[in-house]
């Protein structure tokens, strides 16, 4: 695990895997009273004080004399007092400038920066742009002028201008005019103060303190005996695998089929009476919209109601039919999405890195456990050897099952020493033996938690998978559509079950899979451990969802948490222009080398030819 003392907003909302935890602010200590002489100096200032410090890494001996002289010339002309941290009170021969305005410039080799910045008389902080200095200025709500000197300071000062909380000056181009203009701009333009106060509000607004978060995750690592299960697989992956080079060649056919399904589904939904009433009723007013993420067209509602969107987990032409051609495209509509709630645990998404506006609310759908119907309870309790539960979900009607597969299932189930509960929408199944009980519906979530359930044979849907993990029941997955292949692949990855392909099921393969998963206790142990990992969270899914919903309302949206890549074209994201320039440079270098070798060869060959002619 990695603890980062940086706020996501300050790192451009870089997507991070779940084992990278922001503990921004953990270094902060309680505010202390200022020394009396310093407090008196600040309180007695008529027009306010500018605080100047270039940190502790750059000694005054290395500061360019011309830049220092420029600073002192400008400071001596200001209507403000200047408090300057400097390790040489003599200022190397130009201390006479201090006398130009009496005591308006005060030097000290050390100042309690964090507490000093919080004084109401501080109007501006001129800094080298170090991360801690920047953090202390944001905490105090003091706008900045950054003069970066090395390392991450250029990045930080670039962020001053990005967030409009300060301006940047370059040490090599520092003049009296541009320094005076920068000071006047940042102090007189109140938007800099307003922006840094808003940024402070955003960065302070967290579901728990940095120390609480660090302690909880430290104890988590100890509880779970490590946290390798939270590492991104990309950490140990070659680039060809990372960019799914093989998959890219097969994606287009799958994408087209999925798009066709979504278009038809959208048509049906939009034509319903409820959606028509929602769209055409001009009286409706909403502060926030929560929309199912996979139903992309309903982002249109953000345009209709002019409200921010939280997405929870084609097409435009359909909406334009009712709303007119002025409806913006998806690139514009996407910008209305402030936050995305995912009902998926990070472990199940292979610890995919997410920006801070993508929130896992895994488990939010869970309801309190209910008693089983008496008939089912009695059936389970009376089972001698345990029960295998079989369900292939609700999306695939049993009538679509290949008859040969149904026969294979029935023959294998009839030979088992276990009882079988089979969810099937046709009770007139051929070949039902005495140990098989068929029903069109079962209370699956509660049923799986019964102690007699030994195995769940499933299509591999996400909710079925989640319910099996919650109950601690190992699995056999027979995927059929959608995300089921991915989920069942993870059964084998986490060693909580095995996969069978519906086209290749035989009596031997099914019987072997059942025997393996039931008899090998490691499958049960692995799913119990996975359940422990997935349950271990700092707060409940509902509490997390409520807190972040209120966060979006508090701040009037959450665009400040979006990754910059969200509005970036793929050519920008993959730096195609840079790649072409790099390739052109490599080709030019190779061409130059080859041409040089060729010319060298020709020159040597001619010289040898001349020598031979002379000797002959």
What does this structure look like?
The protein is of the alpha/beta class. The chain has 4 domains: 153 residues, Glycogen Phosphorylase B (Rossmann fold); 98 residues, no CATH class; 162 residues, Glycogen Phosphorylase B (Rossmann fold), CATH 3.40.50.2000; 43 residues. The protein has 25 helices and 18 strands. The protein has a 6-stranded parallel β-sheet with strand order 5-4-3-6-7-8, with helices on both faces. It has a 6-stranded parallel β-sheet with strand order 15-14-13-16-17-18, with helices on both faces. The protein is globular and about 100 Å long. The termini are far apart.
List the helices and strands and how they pair.
Elements lengths: L1 E3 L15 E3 L13 H8 L5 E5 L11 H13 L3 E5 L19 E4 L4 H5 L4 E6 L3 H10 L3 E3 L6 H11 L2 E3 L7 H13 L1 H15 L5 H14 L15 H4 L2 H4 L2 H20 L2 H8 L8 E4 L7 H6 L3 E4 L3 H8 L6 H4 L3 E6 L15 E3 L13 H8 L5 E5 L11 H13 L3 E5 L12 E4 L4 H5 L4 E6 L3 H10 L3 E3 L6 H10 L3 E3 L7 H13 L1 H15 L5 H14 L15 H4 L2 H40 L1
Parallel strand pairs: 1-2, 3-4, 3-6, 4-5, 6-7, 7-8, 9-10, 10-11, 11-12, 13-14, 13-16, 14-15, 16-17, 17-18
């Amino acid at each position: 695990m990695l603890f980062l003392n940086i706020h996501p907003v300050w790192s451009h909302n870089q997507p991070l895997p779940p084992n990278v935890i922001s503990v921004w602010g953990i270094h902060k200590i309680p505010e202390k009273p200022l020394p009396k002489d310093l407090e008196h100096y600040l309180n007695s200032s008529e027009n306010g004080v500018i605080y100047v410090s270039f940190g502790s890494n750059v000694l005054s001996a290395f500061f360019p004399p011309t830049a220092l002289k420029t600073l002192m010339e400008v400071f001596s002309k200001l209507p403000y007092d200047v408090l300057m941290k400097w390790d040489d009170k003599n200022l190397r021969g130009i201390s006479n400038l201090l006398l130009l305005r009496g005591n308006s410039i005060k030097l000290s080799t050390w100042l309690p920066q964090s507490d000093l910045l919080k004084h109401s008389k501080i109007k501006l902080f001129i800094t080298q742009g170090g991360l801690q200095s920047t953090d202390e200025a944001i905490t105090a709500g003091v706008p900045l002028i950054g003069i970066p000197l090395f390392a991450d300071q250029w990045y930080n000062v670039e962020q001053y201008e990005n967030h409009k909380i300060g301006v940047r000056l370059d040490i090599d181009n520092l003049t009296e005019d541009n320094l005076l203009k920068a000071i006047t701009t940042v102090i007189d333009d109140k938007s800099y103060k307003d922006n840094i106060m808003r940024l402070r509000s955003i960065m302070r607004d967290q579901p728990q303190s940095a120390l609480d978060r660090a302690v909880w995750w430290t104890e988590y690592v100890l509880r779970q005996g490590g946290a390798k299960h939270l590492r991104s697989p990309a950490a140990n992956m070659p680039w060809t695998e990372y960019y799914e080079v093989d998959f890219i060649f097969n994606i287009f056919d799958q994408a087209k089929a999925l798009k066709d399904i979504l278009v038809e589904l959208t048509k049906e939904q939009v034509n319903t009476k409820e959606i028509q009433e929602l769209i055409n009723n001009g009286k409706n007013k909403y502060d926030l919209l929560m929309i199912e993420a996979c139903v992309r067209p309903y982002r249109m509602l953000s345009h209709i109601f002019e409200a921010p969107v939280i997405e929870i987990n084609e097409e435009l032409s359909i909406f334009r039919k009712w709303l007119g051609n002025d409806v913006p495209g998806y690139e514009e509509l996407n910008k209305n999405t402030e936050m995305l709630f995912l009902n998926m645990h990070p472990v199940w998404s292979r610890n995919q890195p997410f920006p801070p506006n993508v929130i896992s609310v895994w488990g939010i759908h869970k309801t309190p456990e209910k008693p089983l119907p008496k008939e089912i309870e009695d059936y389970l309790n009376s089972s001698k050897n345990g029960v295998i539960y079989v369900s292939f979900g609700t999306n695939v009607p049993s009538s679509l099952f290949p008859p040969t597969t149904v026969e294979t299932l029935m023959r294998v189930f009839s030979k088992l020493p276990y009882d079988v509960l089979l969810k099937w929408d046709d009770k007139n199944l051929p070949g039902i033996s005495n140990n098989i009980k068929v029903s069109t519906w079962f209370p699956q979530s509660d049923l799986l938690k019964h102690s007699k359930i030994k195995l769940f044979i499933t299509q591999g849907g996400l909710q079925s998978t989640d319910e099996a993990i919650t109950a601690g029941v190992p699995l056999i997955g027979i995927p059929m559509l959608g995300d089921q292949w991915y989920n069942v692949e993870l059964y084998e990855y986490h060693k909580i079950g095995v996969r069978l392909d519906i086209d290749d099921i035989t009596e031997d393969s099914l019987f072997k899979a059942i025997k393996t998963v039931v008899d090998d206790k490691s499958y049960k142990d692995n799913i119990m451990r996975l359940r422990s990992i997935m349950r271990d969270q700092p707060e409940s899914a509902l509490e997390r969802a409520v807190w972040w919903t209120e966060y979006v309302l508090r701040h009037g949206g959450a665009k400040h948490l979006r990754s910059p890549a969200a509005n970036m074209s793929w050519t920008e994201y993959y730096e195609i222009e840079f790649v072409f320039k790099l390739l052109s440079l490599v080709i030019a270098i190779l061409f130059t080398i080859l041409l040089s070798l060729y010319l060298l060869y020709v020159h040597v060959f001619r010289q040898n030819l001349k020598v031979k002619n002379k000797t002959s």
